[in-house]
Amino acid sequence: MQPTTINNFVRTEFNEEAPSNRIKYDINLNSKEFELVVNDLVLDFDIDEVVETGTFNGLGSTSVFAKTGKYVFTIECNKNNFETATKNLEQYQNVCVIHGLSLQREILIKHLIHQEFDIDTTYDSDYPKSFYMREINQQVVLENALDVLANNDRRQLVFLDSAGGVGYAEFLEFMNYEGKHNKILVLDDIDHIKHKRSVEYLEIRGYQVSKSVGNRFAWCDLSKGKLRK
User: Fold this and answer.
1) Pairing of β 217-221 and β 183-188
2) 3-state SS class at 6
3) How many CB atoms are located within 10 Å of the residue 30 CB?
4) Which of 26, 108, 135, 149 is the most exposed place for a label (fewest CB within 10 A)?
5) What one-character-per-residue DSSP string does 151-193 give?
6) Do residues 164 and 124 make contact, with C-beta atoms less than 8 angstroms apart?
7) pLDDT tens string 122-148
8) Using CA of residue 223, residue 69, residue 92, residue 63, what is the dihedral sign?
9) Checking DSSP bridges between strand 49-53 and strand 71-76, what pairing results, if any?
10) How many CB atoms lie within 10 A of CB 136?
11) pLDDT digits (tens, 9 = 90+) for 17-56
């Protein structure tokens, strides 16, 4: 896939021949646009730390967060990815990779079982329930890690980017946190099963949501609350 420049930002060109229900862009989110947005949010909001779900190999969004110099607590359930990310990020003393699940395993499984996966968006597999179930069906050190790290009054940038099928479950749990008013929420894959509904939820309820070029990711300052109608 060849990169194309749009509004001075580089993104990955979609593959027109790929099935329409599959994800079509680089899984690592480390574009210049993302880096600029993150740096602006960190400075403007004066955050204490970053909390991330879905580290993958540590070379995407996590590396962008690491370079801000803020504490970064990032959660990864896949053991191989956890070990790879830990190795890739070992130069950053401000980063801690946690081998865990963002929510309680039972909540994640129930969420997957009851999802119909029938909304018009992109998916990672033709069999999404089993695909995402395998992702979370692993032994970890800590469950409910998102609650442990982000259910507080600290000024945090919270980046939700776990496996697509459980992204909305994470989002709904996060929106119930009493301390969410002190957070910047960033969502990846907003044209994907992961967070298409999350953005719709925010917009319907009057929150101001900003979106990246190409609708790859979005962010919302929850400290501002809902817009007046």
Assistant:
1) antiparallel
2) strand
3) 14
4) 26
5) SSSS-EEEEE-S-GGGHHHHHHHHTT-GGGGGEEEEEE-TTBT
6) yes
7) 888 999 999 999 989 999 999 999 999
8) positive
9) parallel
10) 22
11) 334 444 455 667 879 999 999 999 999 999 999 999 999 9
Our separate counts of H helices and E strands in the chain read 8, 9
Question: What does pTM read for this prediction?
Answer: 0.87
Looking at residue 201, the DSSP 8-state letter turns out to be H
Is domain 29-224 classified as CATH 3.40.109.10?
Answer: no
Give the pair of three-digit tokens for residue 119.
């909304």
Q: Tell me the pLDDT of the chain averaged across its residues.
A: 87
Q: How far is CA 74 from CA 86, 101, 116, 148, 224, in A?
A: 10, 11, 29, 12, 25
Q: What's the chain's length in residues?
A: 229
CB under 8 Å to 113, separation ≥6 — which residues?
Answer: 129
More confident residue, 55 or 121: 55
Angle (nearest 5°) at CA 197 between 195 and 199? 70
Q: Could you tell me the sign of the dihedral formed by the alpha carbons of 168, 173, 178, 182, in that order?
A: negative
- Write the CB contacts of 121 (distance below 8 Å, at least 6 apart in sequence): 21, 191, 192, 193, 196
Question: Cα(3)–Cα(133) distance, rounded to whole angstroms?
Answer: 33
